[in-house]
Fold this sequence. Notes:
mainly beta, Beta-xylosidase, Glyco_hydro_beta-prop_sf, globular, seven-stranded antiparallel β-sheet, signal, Tachylectin-2, Chain A, Jelly Rolls
Amino acid sequence: MKKRYSILLLSLITLFVVRAQENKAHNPIIFADVPDLSMIRVGDTYYMSSTTMHMNPGVPIMKSKDLVNWKLISYAHDKLGDMDELNLNNGKSTYGRGSWASNIRFHNNMFYVTTFAQTTGKTHIYTTKDIEKGPWKEVTFSPAYHDHSILFDDDGKVYMVYGNGKLFVKELKSDLSGVKEGGLDQVMIENASAPAGENINLGAEGSQLYKIKGKYYLFNIAWPRGGMRTVIIHRADKITGPWEGKVGLQDQGVAQGGLIDTPDGKWYSYLFRDAGGVGRIPYLVPVKWENGWPILGENGKVPEYLDLPASKGLIPGIVNSDEFSRKKGEKDLGLVWQWNHNPNNSLWSVKEKKGFLRLKTGRIDTDFLLAKNTLTQRTIGPVCTGTTSLDATNMKEGDFAGLALLQKDYGLVGVKIENGVKKIVMVNAVKGKADELQSIPLTQSKVYFKGECNFKDKADLGKFFYSLDGKNWIAIGKPINMPYTIPHFMGYRFGLFNYATKNIGGFADFDYFHIQDKISKTN
């Protein structure tokens, strides 16, 4: 009797714990590629900027009321620059470069978002009074200050800290249009990596600078050789130092970010983790203050659950389905979409055929990664599915259009026209070499494609399917490996593409794109 009672009690306790956890947020807070995050709170609203490098528009801005459920609300720029590398012209690209780690701040009713780009060689400063509607004003100056962070100090001065390993601080002009002549300009910390040891693989970078209760705090990431990504924290009474540093967190490789507080006085550190093919994904860890230091985590560990509201999912805030039907006054493309590099806006439309995205060809390309106007959005974890319907009626000889899983080692499924004949093909690219794994004759113009992603425990596997009726799905090719590669420096993306290899002037019409946070049980 006692044994049965104990079992029943244990079952009730387990059920209670599970129910309680279901109502709480859990890490990662966003299982999608949102790296290099920078966060602020304005009143009861949080804003976050992130990195999307070679994508256009760039420097995405997200908004949340609870630190867990985020929604894309704008981008800082429509075009980072106008050059061959950003335009995919003359065989050039800017994969893995473009705009890097951004910094978001709010001062005197103005929002500031800053970034830097090796591609342009400049530091870019974007400002607006309306972070959702804009307009954004841009100023730039050289050089590109690496992984910088800005601080509006109490005395009206503006500082920028930047660098790798050796960190520097410069005073900026009050309007952030450049470095102030005669202002503070010095080495801030000679070796900011030192708290993590002497054998360092990646020197301290990813700076996030704060002033809290009269003290200056600086967050960085370093990576000890043979170890893991590590949070380093420095503090000082003056911006000029002296600075004292310590390891802030060393768990699961969760690192690089900063501090955020809630309206009711709680503190968190926002950080991210390398998670394989899905990309670099955000985490939150609780923070307590002891002796003037922020203490990260629970007993030095990243907790699985957080005392915050549960996630409602990443659809529709971070990714979303699209029927390509637009009402009067609606933007042609939702914020979930970004182009691979700068697009040619004359070669796409959601108006020429109502309810369809039309991708037109305007030049000859033989390499998918260098083809213009691939329209993308993030994949999400732990699993996800993207589907689309393609009308190939107006494609020309040599055209190739369909659905992609985009990274350096990409996968494609689509319609290709060869010798006047349509066929469904599946392509897999490994280490720069693209192979057509399967080809199937197509005798109709409308066809459906599906891509599935499994990122559970870094499985990083993708599968492609096609359908002739939108109901019965047939696997094509073989499962692909989806490794995270540094040359692209980005998680895998779903992409809708159409490019010409022989003749220009053809076009492909996509009826919809649907995304789900699940995969088929039967395939």
